[in-house]
Amino acid sequence: MAHQKTPYQWSARGFVAPGVILVAILLYLPLLWTVFLSFTEYNGLGSPDWIGLDNYVEMFTDGDFVGSAMNTVLWVIGTLIIPVGIGLAIALLTWNLGGGIWLRLPFLIPYALSGIGVGVVWSFILSSGGALDQALAAFGVTDPPRWLLDAPLNTIVMIIASSWQGVGVNALLFTIGLQAIPKEPLEAARIDGAGGIRLFTSILWPMLRPLTAVVVGLSIVASLKTFDIVWGMTKGGPGTVSETLALTMYKETFVNSDYGLGSAIAVFLTVITLLASVLYLRQQLSPKKEM
Questions:
Q1: Beta bridge partners of 211
Q2: pLDDT single digits (tens) 98-109
Q3: What family is it from (predicted)?
Q4: CA dihedral 86, 87, 89, 90 (to 10 degrees)
Q5: Is the distance from CB of 87 to CB of 214 less than 8 angstroms?
Q6: What distance in Å separates the CA atoms of residue 104 and residue 172, rounded to the nearest whole number?
Q7: Is the bond preceding 238 in cis, omega lying within 30 degrees of 0?
Q8: Residue 168, number of CB atoms within 10 A of its CB
Q9: DSSP characters for 175-197?
Q10: CB–CB of 180/91 below 8 Å?
Q11: What confidence tens digit (pLDDT) does each residue in 107-138 have?
């Protein structure tokens, strides 16, 4: 016998329906439209012309796309090693330290800036003849590197600029995780003589594992869609040597008016981001089998 819906269930669905409809309009319909455009040739005027997989073929055979994909991989690696690693180190060093919150505060201030704001600040520092070059000249360095003009140096210094912004929030998240660790296992470990690296590897790191998975997952997603800092510092140049996938997508769509190719890049970037997030979080958060 079919289960009949109660008046309460129908009322609940009525309250939920506006939110579901709003999400469908603002999220799912644009996503479906983007997927459709990726199979068309469309310049924003008239009607899209169906061309099948041509945009995807062009995308994967374009040297500029391959370069931006490699830069994006470099961003993923760099933003995992630098801001996450330094954030963890700061959290560990200031965790049980008196006034530790004041030591962490300077690292949090850059997080209040927008990505474009960070790009403007670091462009002033790293541009040719900028603040860093002038400081080096005071020490006798007359031929400094071209920080924002040579690849892959420009991508590396932009990763450092992004890390300057992201270290503080990672330190804050790790500090919250450390403060949530029960005192009993820490006290027992110290009584057994554990301290320093041994305490970290045996007690702290295993207990921080769920939070670390979230922090790393967020860093992966943020690095895959890096746009604002690159746009603010180099606009992907010189030429296209410092472009990321998100920046290439933007340029193809809104600068070159190639909405089909831009949509194909957007679909590819979305799929890669979802796969990376789901696979990483499933691997990290799944229960470990006992040996």
A1: none
A2: 777 888 888 888
A3: Belongs to the binding-protein-dependent transport system permease family.
A4: 110
A5: no
A6: 8
A7: yes
A8: 22
A9: HHHHHTS-HHHHHHHHHTT--TH
A10: no
A11: 888 988 888 999 999 999 999 889 999 999 99
